[in-house]
Amino acid sequence: MQPADVLHVDSIDWKTWKPTEYANLCFIIRDDQILLIRKKRGLGAGKINGPGGRLEPGETALQAAIRETQEEVGVTPLRLEQIGELHFDFVDGYKLHAAVFVAEDCEGVLRETDEATPLWVNVNQIPYHEMWQDDPLWVPLLLQRNKFSGYFVFDGEQMLSHRIENQDKIYLFDK
Fold this sequence. Notes:
The chain is mostly beta strands and 175 residues long. The protein contains two helices and ten strands, in the order ββββαβββαβββ.
């Protein structure tokens, strides 16, 4: 068992922290709506999130965001901008870095796949209660197009501590 202070976001040296995997999330926003998915498998299965997934060897986060969105829901995001980055440290040893992109539109035919069910949601009605516990902390920053970095410690699906940095401001929250 790890000491309690190891489970706090500020006890981790994030400058030397190395992720186990790299991933991305891509949120398409148009006409006051955001494209979300209900994940069918993998990390977070059953939860609502944005399209995204792990980077393949030699792939950039931007390339992966486009590919994953195409694979998961059949559309190609347009005019992408990286708006944030998320660092997840799980007490079981898994460490995930996710680049977060926002796209202004998309092209193609939206479809359900074996990975995800897509849903357009009004930006004022995002179902945070069906999402990861960190999402309500940084998705509003994404909607405002404020660049951010998030640091999180999780035990399974339970967030233990976190910190959000946004344009020279640091928001400290403890659960």
